Structure formats: C-alpha cells, structure tokens
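To: structure subgroup
Subject: Chain for Friday's discussion

All,

I'm putting the inputs and outputs inline so they're searchable in the archive.
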Amino acid sequence: MAERQYVIFKLENEAYGVDIMNVKEITEHKESVKVPNTPKFVDGIINLRGDIIPIINLRKRFNLKDITINFDTRVIVITIKNRQVGFIVDEASQVLRISEENIEPAPELVAGVDKKYITGVGKLEDRIVLLLDLEYILTDDEKEKIQQIS
C-alpha cells in the first residue's frame, strides 16, 4: 500500500494537509510590505533570502475570522507558475504519512471552484484532515495578479 507525506497545518481548529512534494519550505512569519491594489487576501510581499514573495493569508482567502499573528504562525512556501508564493497559516505542526487507502475523494457537497483545490479527505485514527492543493486555491485571474506583484 502506497503512502504519501503531508505537511499538516491548522486554521482555527481545523487540520489541513498539503502534499510535502509541493512544499518548498516552511518559515516563521515575518512582517510583509503592503502592496496597493491587490486582492484583499494578499497581505503583501516579503524578502526571503533575496526572493520577493507574495504572501497570501489563508484565513482571509477562506473568509475566516482574522486573528493576531503569534509565535506559532507559519508561512508555507510553494511554487506557482515558476514563482514562489507564501501562505500564512495558524501553525504548521507536523508531517504525516497517510496511506492511499485512507484517503477519500472530496465530498460531493463541495461544489465549484472549491472542489478544485480539495484533493481529498485523509482519515486518521482520531480525526480527519482536509487535503489541499494550494496552487488551485487561487483562480487563474488571481494567479496572474500575483505574478505581477513585485
């Protein structure tokens, strides 16, 4: 039975996972520079070892209540269209192996664009983890706007 590794992160009290093969790095949160005329869920840009990276606030993207950034807040960096993009999460706590037999398809009640970024539901002994593909959290138009941020 094949297993996949997922970086587990939290938003509010919910656990989410992203395939570790899609994660470039996880870093501590640092203050971003605001960029005018960007979507409301773009917190700004940061300089990460010489690379300018747009920062997406997943709480805002998912229309969740905003909270104060704290010691546990992390930024998960992935590559979208050859550009690094950071996603702010409440915490990125661990890497888990989930066997493919314990992954179910996205629920039917999820419709439209949301279903595109939900790759499945991981079943663990005492909880479930919603598995996401962060690249598809943004629409094609939003990806184009992110590409233009500098």
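Points worth raising on Friday:
Residues 81 and 144 are 9 Å apart (CA to CA).
The chain has a mean pLDDT of 88.

D.
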